[in-house]
Amino acid sequence: MRRCGGRHSWLQIRVGSELDRAFNQIPTGGWVLPEPDVRLAPHRIVRPDLAGWRKEHMPELSEDWPIDLRPDWVCEVVSPTNAHYDRGLKSQVYLQAGVPWYWLADPQERTLEVFENHGKHWLYHGSFTDGDVRGLPPFDSAVLTMSELFGPLPKGWPGTV
Fold first, then answer.
1. Predicted local confidence at residue 5, as pLDDT
2. Beta carbons of 69 and 36 less than 8 angstroms apart
């Protein structure tokens, strides 16, 4: 199995830690887990890069494998080898399972896309990048600074020396 590069892994940790903090700023709190195995249907186990559950749905951190409770939020960190899967089949699996929120974080493009489940389709809330400072659903109360989330610009990026 091909492992992800450094920028992918670093972004996964950054998003996870920021959103773990954000989840715990909402009244009910929640859990954010990296790469949990989640059963969404009897024969459908997925491993999102990050998944979150509100404590009202998962009062205690699950020790089960796989976790049999649908996440309230999922984030995939896109890489060149999996973008088609994250944007295609995997997004449809999450949609059909009723995952309320789906984020796609792209370390190469430095974008974070937010989608809300509307039954038969994803409602697109926007694409956020460097310069954007705001709360994003379902973490509206937690301000995220995209430039900090994505980290320093790589050498050769437009505007760098």
1. 53
2. no
The gap from C-alpha 56 to its chain's centroid, in whole angstroms, comes to 20
Answer yes or no: are the C-beta atoms of 139 and 26 closer than 8 Å. Answer: yes
- In this structure, which long-range contacts are made by residues 132-136, counting pairs with CB atoms below 8 Å and at least 24 apart in sequence? 136/103, 136/112
153 is a domain residue? no
Q: Is the peptide bond before 66 cis (omega within 30 degrees of 0)?
A: yes
Strand partners, 124: 115
Length of the chain: 161
Domain with residue 51: its CATH number is 3.90.1570.10
Contact in structure between 68 and 12 (CB atoms under 8 Å): no
What would the pLDDT profile of 47-62 be if each residue is shown by its tens digit? 998 898 888 888 787 7
Element (H, E) at 85: helix 83-87
* pLDDT tens-digit map of 115-124: 999 999 999 9
